[in-house]
Each structure stands twice: as structure tokens, then as C-alpha cells.
Amino acid sequence: MNKILEKEHFSEKVVRLVVEAPSIARSRRAGHFVIVRSGDHGERIPLTIADADTDRGTITLVVQAIGESTSKICALEPGEYLTDVVGPLGQATHISKVGTVVCCGGGVGVAPLLPIIKAMKAAGNRVVTVLAARTRELVILEEQVAEYSDEIIIMTDDGSYGKQGLVTDGVEEVINREKVDMVVTIGPAVMMKFVALLTKKYDVPTMCSLNTIMVDGTGMCGACRVTVDGKTRFVCIDGPEFDAHKVDFDEMMMRLRSYN
Ligand code: FES
């Protein structure tokens, strides 16, 4: 059982939870995720660790209420417990000094992007972050992202905040004005697909973090399988990060739809 210590609403359906998990807080690195359950028969929900505090022994998770299980998790209040938190899982992000890194996130994808932004900055990179959302209300973690970014560009579909346009418009603007050495993209599969198509055109290495359905999180059930560079890979043990230019996003989206 893992106690919830803090809760903050980013929007009606997106909450930030600070959860007691001392051993995970100690061993996690950027890119790692956990699988959480609320209730003994709750679905197993994979969530990237957005932040951790080793002194307090806590991890921070950002959860979007989409179905029954995520709604149940979002309804938990400080003092209540998650039934279990398993992790850290997956491969940590490979962080190095490459020069200028454009980190782009859409919707709740900004939460898993935050630890990567922090780590890329700490490694000495120039970090330009592009945050995208449908409307102003759905832009999350702007302050935290701004703290570790050299520049932040906000794009909204309806132009209610920042510039009007898609995440790809923001990324292309940066690529057209300066040398970009790497792009990191996290968000809905369709968004990552189009970021990958754009950066391929400009030949900029691009890393994505995939958000497939997961069940066991240990490479045994096959639920998270994706095709990368023509080979079957498991997001839970081989990922969640992959070369975005090699991911078969169409197949991934088809599999996600079949689960729906
Ligand atoms: Fe089962 Fe990855 S979640 S193989």
C-alpha cells in the first residue's frame, strides 16, 4: 500500500499525485515508469515517474482520468492509499550532452517529459521545450518545465494561449532557425507519429516514449508489443523510449484502437 501525500488538479481530468514510495524514489532515473493499481481487482496502469524526492521518499505521478481505473486513481485523496506501486520499470533515458535538444510534449505527455527535460539540462544541453495542448486549460506543468528549459514555446489548437498551431509547427519553427541536434517527443501516438515524420524530413535524431497498454510490465503478456525497425519489441522492458523514426506508429495506433 502506498500512501498519497499530496494531490493537485491540473485540469478537470488530470491530477498530480505525490505518493510515498521510498525505494522507488531512491532508484528511479529519468524515463522509468511504475505500474499502479487501485483496488485488488483494479487494472494495472503504467505511469511515468514525473519526479521524485529522495529525502521525503516520494514519487510524483500525473494521471489522466480516461476509464474506470484511472478515474478511481484520480478520485483518491491525500491520506488514502494506492493498492500497489511496482517499479521502477523500463529502461532509463540515455542522457548525454548533444547540443540543442527540443523536447516536445502534448497533453499529459508533458509529465513524463519533465524528468527528461531536467536531465538533458543537467547534462549541459540547450533545451527548447514545445508544450502543446488543445486549449489553455489543458497546458500542464508550464512553470516546472520553464525552470529547466532555456526557452519554452506553447502551442494551442485554438490559439487561446501561446501560439495557435500544432506541436509540429513549434518544432519546425525551432529547426528552421537554429541547429537542432535531437528531438524528444512524448504525447498521443498520432502526435509522435507526425513529429517523427517532420524530423525525419530534416534528419534530426528523435526519441519518443511510447504509452501502450501494459499488463504485467515484465515482458511476458505481450500487451505492450510494438514494431520497431521491423522487429517486435516490448515497451515495458525494451522501452518505453525508442528511435521515433523506426517505430511503426500506424500499427501501434491500430493495436490501441483494438483495445478500446
Ligand atoms: Fe506485458 Fe509488456 S506489459 S509484455
From TrEMBL:
Binding sites annotated in the UniProt record for FAD: V62, V63, Q64
Pfam families documented for this protein: DHODB_Fe-S_bind, NAD_binding_1
Domain FAD-binding FR-type: 1-95
CDD domains: DHOD_e_trans_like1 (cd06219)
Cofactor entry: [2Fe-2S] cluster; FAD
Any one GO biological process: pyrimidine nucleotide biosynthetic process
Record PANTHER family: DIHYDROOROTATE DEHYDROGENASE B (NAD(+)), ELECTRON TRANSFER SUBUNIT, DIHYDROOROTATE DEHYDROGENASE B (NAD(+)), ELECTRON TRANSFER SUBUNIT-RELATED
Official protein name in the record: Ferredoxin-NADP reductase
Annotated organism of origin: Muribaculum intestinale
Taxonomic placement: Bacteria, Pseudomonadati, Bacteroidota, Bacteroidia, Bacteroidales
